[in-house]
Amino acid sequence: xxxxxxxxxxxxxxxxxxxxxxxxxxxxxxxxxxxxxxxxxxxxxxxxxxxxxxxxxxxxxxxxxxxxxxxxxxxxxxxxxxxxxxxxxxxxxxxxxxxxxxxxxxxxxxxxxxxxxxxxxxxx
Length: 124
Fold this sequence. Notes:
By secondary structure, the chain is mainly alpha-helical. It has two domains: 29 residues, no CATH class; 84 residues, Orthogonal Bundle (Arc Repressor Mutant, subunit A), CATH 1.10.10.10. Helices cover 56% and strands 10% of the residues. A hairpin with a 6-residue loop joins strand 1 and strand 2. Helix 1 crosses helix 2 and helix 3 crosses helix 6. Keywords: DNA-binding, Transcription, Transcription regulation.
């Protein structure tokens, strides 16, 4: 459990106050959150479908990451009443849908610059 008056907590709170970027990155930080959001945007909106799409993620981690994304209102859980037992599907909120093109842009940026690849400067 994290101490509320620890230096790390105080510094984090300060950074969140001075720059919204830090808050935004915090919402999607985590090894799997971006992949989960992108997968849901592509139609993998059930737990077993996400697990199949991301086979290296444990069920415990997937469950925790989904709960955190729900806490940040990036996705919502919706019951599917006509299933027995009642199934759950995950839907992106408007906030989550707005995140998808940003993730696409980051993915493109990562393809260009990740792994120490040197790309010549673009002139605009």
